[in-house]
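Human: Not sure, check this?
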Amino acid sequence: MTENETIFWNRILELAQSQLKQTTYEFFVLDARLIKVENNVATIYLDPMKELFWEKNLKDVILTAGFEIFNAQIAVDYQFEDDLEMMPGTQEGSQAFSSQNINPLPLVKSDLNPKYSFENFIQGDENRWAVAASIAVANTPGTTYNPLFIWGGPGLGKTHLLNAIGNSVLLDNPNARVKYITAENFINEFVIHIRLDTMDELKEKFRNLDLLLIDDIQSLAKKTLLGTQEEFFNTFNALHNNNKQIVLTSDRTPDHLNDLEQRLVTRFKWGLTVNITPPDFETRVAILTNKIQEYSFTFPQDTIEYLAGQFDSNVRDLEGALKDISLVANFKQIDRITVDIAAEAIRARKQDTPKMTIIPIEEIQTQVGKFYGVTVKEIKATKRTQDIVLARQVAMFLAREMTDNSLPKIGKEFGGRDHSTVLHAYNKIKNMIVEDESLRIEIETIKNKIK
């Protein structure tokens, strides 16, 4: 299709979705395709059973889009499967509705990192659904979850999964047109092509992909880059309309991309949105056990568990700790990493973390109790009424945030609870404050009282 035809068709879809219920839109509209617009007549492929619906409900939509894009009244000629078989240059399937490729498409550089695969991604409860969805997308791109939107904090494996999807698709089909790119680099490419007046090259590069993998899409959410958002919007539509797979990652949910155009946010929610949270203790142990295979040192189990207890926010901290240990071990010419050696190696990294070691856990429990109207004794006990459970979990969260005490130490201060209980409370509150602005304000208020 020409650029105007693509814009015209995207406008029809946008207007139709705004006027119809989602289920109605998906059934009657999504499988339709624009073949061409010629002599003010739009030729649209359609299931013959759906023609009456289009005539009754979408005639005004087509007229509106026609005047907006072509400044003319656009009539409609519906074509059905039998008709398409007789049309020159068409064939069954989605290829029948793509623009005619007179020249072969240029090669596309995937920019994938070959070291990332599903096989070397450590799965835990915190990423189980993201992994399952990613594998499903890699197995049947463009048909299962499109787009797939993966969100979570930094260093939790989003980039690993993006690359694993791409590498898996290329393994199955080496001729697939796959592109991995960060949103920041997409912006940079857009600016360069605007400056060089070569936007057609950018469109050809991105709108003819089989799989587009965009990392850190939140970088696109800037009010000063509306031109970039417009181009990405058109790219998204071009790919989605042709059943090409799109996968995006972000540090927040689509609804929290505040500076992104609403029409983009809506499209990001068309498919599946999955969350990755920080790895639990057992997953961190598994990650470390896997990572130490890259080193020539021996790590006893107690050292691995010690390191897993020191860093619980993301995988990058664990990887950085191993590099610190490697440096110290090489300098001292030792090959067995004891807990003491590990503690010495990561001391500087631990000191860099913004935690206040002088705050007693009891002070945190006291201030949290006062705020929520419960006693420290109740926080430490086993009673599980809603107000006490919330206070207890907030206190554990703040103890982890504001002190450098280990998880077992914090658990001991809360009635002898296991480290996994503390970690569960920490992760739960951390995820809740992303969605619950009131809770975030409550915790900030308590923090100020403690400080």
